[in-house]
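Incident log, structure service

09:12 report received: a user says their structure output differs between two submissions of the same chain.
09:20 pulled the input from the user's history:
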Amino acid sequence: MLKQRLIHPEILDALAAAGHGSRVLITDGNYPASTKIGENAALVYLNLAPGKVTVTEVLDVLLSAIPVEDAAVMEPASGPEPAIFAEFRRLLPELDLNKLDRFEFYEEAGGPDTCLQIVTGEQRIYANLLLTIGVVLP
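09:34 re-ran on a clean worker, output below:
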């Protein structure tokens, strides 16, 4: 029995095996999870139903378990910035969002440093977030 917010066994397993510089991808419901997964990434589906569970709900819980030193987002080719970016900034106030175009994002997220990919039921577009795990100081 765990006495912390993060209790999902597969997510805990992947994070426990990760280290500084490892990456965690949280995807929206439109992300091509099965075809863009990295060779070292565990794949966890949390997409129970449309809108359940959201990327920001997952992020909020992950932040209780890991330090984050970098965050990358998928930026649209044109148009205004997606509204969810403001929520990411609210939850990650000490970080600047690293904006990547769609194909750069796929390449980075599918790289060998990604240890975990969490698929959500998020319906907001461009709600994909690639986190880099930071250092736990003594």
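09:41 both user submissions now match this output. Likely a transient worker issue. Closing.
09:42 reviewer note: The chain is about 25% helix and 20% strand. The mean pLDDT is 96.
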